[in-house]
Design goal:
mainly alpha, Ferritin
């Protein structure tokens, strides 16, 4: 029996202790990656929705994301840093989740409803990231970044609320109405199968005997 080979232990990586300025750069790189990914996918998601109002709001978010990217790049210039190649895997997962919904759900109110939820999940993540970056920027007196993140937080909060209102007032009612229409069609089909005029075979037989 061959002797078991003793596994070599991988050397442990030494932990780092970055300062506030470094953490701010990392946070901004994460946000830049998230907004870049969202800008790339939002037009494709927009084409899949049924609600014109929702499509307009998605286009609005695309414009806001482009503005955030520009502002962050201005901050990088001030800090003499760059966005780098850091990929935001958290945002990537949320965006991929939205893409999967488009592939799995038929176009209509149901897809619109699910996409609103997916966009809000992504927006909530962004709001958390903007808040963290703003706090770090304020701590190191980076006014340009603090202003950019503060504006993004205000606009993002309003956008999230508008999505909720759209879901409550338009998209969810449309989804429920569609379900009722489908249920009515099923009942009509069942009635036609039982006798063509909505009466059961037993009722028609009773009516025939009474007429004799």
């Amino acid at each position: 029996m061959a002797a078991k080979t003793k596994a070599r232990k991988q050397p442990r990586r030494s932990k780092e202790s970055p300062d506030a300025n470094t953490l701010l750069v990392v946070e901004l790189q994460e946000i830049h990656s998230a907004e870049t990914q969202l800008a790339r996918q939002m037009p494709r998601l927009s084409k899949a929705v049924d609600s014109e109002t929702l499509r307009g709001m998605m286009d609005e978010r695309l414009e806001e994301g482009e503005r955030i990217i520009e502002e962050i790049e201005s901050v990088f210039e001030e800090l003499e840093e760059s966005p780098g190649r850091r990929r935001n895997v958290a945002a990537e997962g949320l965006i991929n989740d939205a893409r999967e919904h488009v592939q799995e759900i038929e176009r209509g109110p149901a897809l619109d409803c699910v996409l609103i939820g997916a966009i809000q999940k992504t927006e909530h993540y962004c709001i958390a990231a903007w808040g963290t970056a703003r706090a770090l920027a304020q701590a190191v007196d980076q006014k340009t970044a603090a202003r950019a993140m503060d504006r993004a937080l205000k606009v993002g909060g309003q956008y999230d609320e508008k999505l909720t209102q759209l879901a409550e007032k338009e998209v969810t009612p449309a989804l429920l109405s569609e379900a009722e229409d489908t249920s009515g069609e099923d009942e009509e089909s069942a009635a036609q199968a039982s006798g063509g005029d909505g009466r059961s075979k037993r009722n028609r037989a009773s009516e025939e005997r009474a007429g004799r």
